[in-house]
Structure formats: structure tokens, C-alpha cells
Amino acid sequence: MRSELITVRTGGSPVVEDITREAADFVRSEQDGLLHVFVPHATAGLAIIETGAGSDDDLLTAIDDLLPTEDKWQHRHGSRGHGRDHVLPAWIPPYATLPVIGGEIALGTWQSICLVDPNGDNPIRQVRFSFLKG
Q1: How many CB atoms lie within 10 A of CB 42?
Q2: 9 Cβ contact list (under 8 Å, min separation 6)
Q3: Is 24 helix (H, G, I), strand (E, B) or coil?
Q4: Which of 27, 87, 99, 118 is most buried by its number of CB atoms within 10 A?
């Protein structure tokens, strides 16, 4: 198994950050196997979605609808509504595993690997890529 940790600057507001290029660079020298992507944070997740056509903004809107930033959350440190960020990984998991064939991630035409970070309190995130040979 080979592993690498990257740093992603997400800024101070909710974001869906496309990390497909970084993942593709990581597996480029490999053949067949599995790419495992993991976010070691309690308030972020990973989604395989289309980006650039509004789906990334739609996802943030859906998160706000499902998990509003109100003061109803028992987990109360951080910015207003931060408790909802700690619930997010129950819906958008902090991991994804994808097939790699001939050094390329076998994504569909419109699919991208995205870091989903609704928590503006932590502007820097880490993502771990691990490759398991087939």
C-alpha cells in the first residue's frame, strides 16, 4: 500500500472543492487497484458528484436545508450552527473507494471527487490518498 497526505485550503465559508486532479496525479504511476480517499476531520466529507454545472452549489444548499445552521444543536462550540457540521459525516462520509484501471481512476464522464467542507472555522483540511494494488 502507498499513501500520501495532501493539504487543501478550503477558506472561511462552506465549499465543495474538486480534488480529482490531485487524486489522478497520485495514481498515475500505478496499474490496477483501488484508490481510497479519507478526510481525517469530524466536520468534512467526500462526495462523488458533477461539478461546474451548479451541482456543487446545489449540494451546499441541500446541506443547509437538511442540516440548517441554527442554534438547535447540542454541540455548540465554534461558529453558529457548528453542531450541524459534526453531523454531516453521517450523510456525506469522510471516505470513498474508487477503482483504478491502468493508472486512471474509473470515474464516470461527469463524476468528480469532491471534498465537502461546510465548516468555515477550519480553513485548512487534509486528505489522505491510499493506493491498494490489485
Answers
A1: 14
A2: 123, 124, 125
A3: helix
A4: 118
**Assigned fold of 2-133:** Jelly Rolls (2.60.120)
pLDDT tens-digit map of 26-62: 999 999 999 999 999 999 999 999 998 999 999 999 9
Query: What are the tens digits of pLDDT across the range 79-105?
Result: 777 888 899 999 999 999 999 999 999
| Helix or strand holding residue 60 (H, E) | helix 55-66
Residues linked to residue 5 through DSSP beta bridges, in sequence order: 128
pTM of the prediction?
Answer: 0.94
Where do the structural domains in the chain lie, given as residue ranges?
2-133
Amino acid of residue 86: H
**Three-class DSSP category at 129:** strand
DSSP states of 77-127: SSSTTHHHHHHGGGTS-SEEEEEEETTEE---TT-EEEEEE--TT--EEEE
Q: Cα(54)–Cα(40) distance, rounded to whole angstroms?
A: 27
Question: Helix (H, G, I), strand (E, B), or coil: what is residue 13?
Answer: coil
